Amino acid sequence: MVSNVQVLTAGTRFDQEKSRQDGKPIPTTVVTLLVTPEDAERIALATNEGQITLTLRNPLDVAPTETSGARMAALLGRPAPPPVQVTTPTRRVVRSARAPEPPPPKPYTVEAIRAAKRTEEPIR
User: Fold this and answer.
1) Alpha-carbon span 86 to 91, nearest angstrom
2) Least packed by Cβ within 10 Å: which of 32, 54, 60, 107?
3) What pLDDT, in 10s, does the model give residues 33-77?
4) Contact predicate 120/109, CB 8 Å
C-alpha cells in the first residue's frame, strides 16, 4: 500500500497509439504522482497485476495508513478466512568429498576426402 502521496497533475490524455482501427484518439485518464522509487515499484507491480484505485485525503492528514486490507467475504458479512502461510520444502544438497574429473578433451580431427573414401584424421 502506498499512502501520503502528492498528486502533481491529473487530467485526460488522448492516446493515439491504441486507436489503430478508426484513427480517432482514445481519451485516457492520467495521474502523475510524486513517489519514492520503492513506491513506484509497488505501483508498477499493482498496475501489472490488476487495477489501481486512488483515494483523496485531507491534505492535513499526513499519518501513514495502517489497514489490514479488505476481503470480499468481509463485505458480504462472513468472517474472513485466516491468511494462508505458504511454506516451501527445504532441499538438502549432498556433496561428495571429491569432484569427478572432467573427461579428457576430444582431439581435433579433420575429415579427409580422397576420391570416394572419407576418413577422419587427428591433428597433432
Assistant:
1) 16
2) 60
3) 999 998 888 888 888 888 788 888 888 888 877 777 777 777 777
4) yes
Strand partners, 110: 121
Give the span between the Cα atoms of 5 and 81, in whole angstroms.
31
Q: Which pLDDT tens digit goes with each residue over 7-45?
A: 888 888 777 666 656 667 777 788 889 999 988 888 888
**Cα maximum dimension of the chain:** 94
pLDDT at 102 over 70: yes
pTM over 0.85: no
64 close to 54: Cβ distance less than 8 angstroms: no
What residue has cell string 544438497? 93
Q: Is the alpha carbon torsion for 20, 23, 29, 32 positive or negative?
A: positive
